[in-house]
Design brief:
The structure holds 2 protein chains of 2 kinds. Chain A is an alpha+beta fold. Helix content of chain A is 28%, strand content 25%. Chain A has 13 helices and 26 strands. Chain A is globular. Chain B has a single domain, classed as Roll (Nuclear Transport Factor 2, Chain: A), CATH 3.10.450. The chains are: A alpha+beta, B alpha+beta.
Amino acid sequence: MKHLDAKTLRSLVHRDRVHRSLYTDPDIFDLEMERIFERNWVYVGHDSLVPRPGDFLTTRIGSRPVVMSRDADGKIYVLRNSCGHRGAVVCVEDKGNAELFRCCYHGWTFKLNGALDAVSMPRGYGKDFDLADPALGMPRAPRVEAYRGFVFASLAEDGVSLAEHLGPARDSIDELVDRAPDGQVDLSGGVHKYMFRGNWKLQLENTVDMYHVPFSHESTVGRGGRQFGRRPGESAASEIGDSGTAAARWEQRTAWGSRQGGHGFAGHQPIAEKLPDNPMFRDYVASLEARYGAERAKEILRPKRHNTAFYPNMSLQALNQHVRVIIPVAVDRTEIHVYPVQLKGAPDAMNRGFIRHLNLTHSAASLIQTDDLECFRRCQAGVGAGGAEWVWFARGVDTDTEDARGDYVNRGTVEVQQRAQYAAWARLMCEAT
Amino acid sequence: MAARSADISAAMLAERFEIEDFLRHEVQLLDDRRFEEWRELFAEDGRYWVPLRPDATDPDAESALFNDDRAIMQTRLERLGHPRIHSQTPPHRTCHVIGNIAIQERNPERGECTVRSTMIMADYRVRVQRVFAGHVTHRLRRSDSGYKIVLKRVDLINCDDVFELMAAPL
């Protein structure tokens, strides 16, 4: 990989554009897995998916298979899903509960914290073989931290704290979790899993792309220029258009991107200001007020952000509230997992409504996400057409401002969030090894 | 249990013929992309459900590939008819085969019966052909105008798989 030195990598990313090879070069993909996914904080899972001791789920950090487990003492671990003996994947289920993990091949067993529990037929090993050697366990992610149930891990021993990594993006987790009357969210309502034949960054860019909506999703806009209802009990939702008052309102939304961390958000959709008015929602507001008082409840319900991208692999969305996880598989293949978010302490009917509406917007057979997936597929198919070098993120580049942290701030349908993503990309990819 | 010839009546044969004919008609409408007519096969309280997990029991308690009542179907079908639906440009072509049709349960008071069948469906779009296979449960209600679907549930054998995009009902 001699050709991918820091100088070369830096030349691939400009403020307003990135080189097309970022989507097509397998060597760049391998470097991304190493330098972005394995040295940085990445989202792994939510603690409501492993509520009891012994619970575990399997996922990936970049292309590395991992297990997130809850040990007997309640602590959450992230382990490489690999037997310390011959390397076989130990856990094959998506999720489950176990007292010990047992490798199918020769029966070695591991504790929920990854430590080697027992070697089968141990007398066959010589006296120099140290069964207490930590290298024989399932390797542990050295750093695991959770924020309000959202579990992040880093495969690197050293680095910034999770709080520093997340920066102001963390407020989006608060905005979501504060809406639960019990102050906790639950992600155990199933998961939508899909795959597209395209690079992982296509999905990450799209999670905070407010420019594509009237075009990619034109088929979801019905008569009167409104999208179908996206919240329980709602028949018509956002006004969507590329001109007139609908477009003008969208231009008022905040756009923010962290140059350092790569995170970004788009301000709330105009429709979110109009709170639902039905008995179920009034019950919900009452339970929030009972818990927090009327003034605080009002502040909690005031919409602030619509989409937040947590670099490099997770996003939150407010309107059809969900957590989206991006799993890169190959330079031209990506898996996405979408979890509905239930608000603990909210009326049961409301949480069921969230789950049901998310099917409509974000299942593999949904009305919204399918058109995004088609756009990603076409991007991947076309980006290697040749004759052009760049993919452009120039919209609004002249009007970006910087806040006190040095992060980018702008408004509306600009591509500032993507500019921030690639500023972070260049930083992470070019950092000395 | 397989029926014995001595127990088979003309009424049973007629019922079986009608149900088989109805199910054949249903998948024909899907393959022909006559979705509005397909929606009309559902009762007013009808539901179309494709779970994402084997043994799911409550459609609204967990994520599903499809969990459509007639109102949601209407929204879905309006979109399928839109000239700029990118995920169906070009559209999927589909080919259903149904078999192993068995009437499992009758509820004469409600005029309903439950029918189980096996479905194989292939679809094709932009150089990708896929195969879906699953067990289908229809709860059918008899009306003056023939059968109406109260519930169509498709349990795909790969329900918890990672899917590429879909648009049309299975």
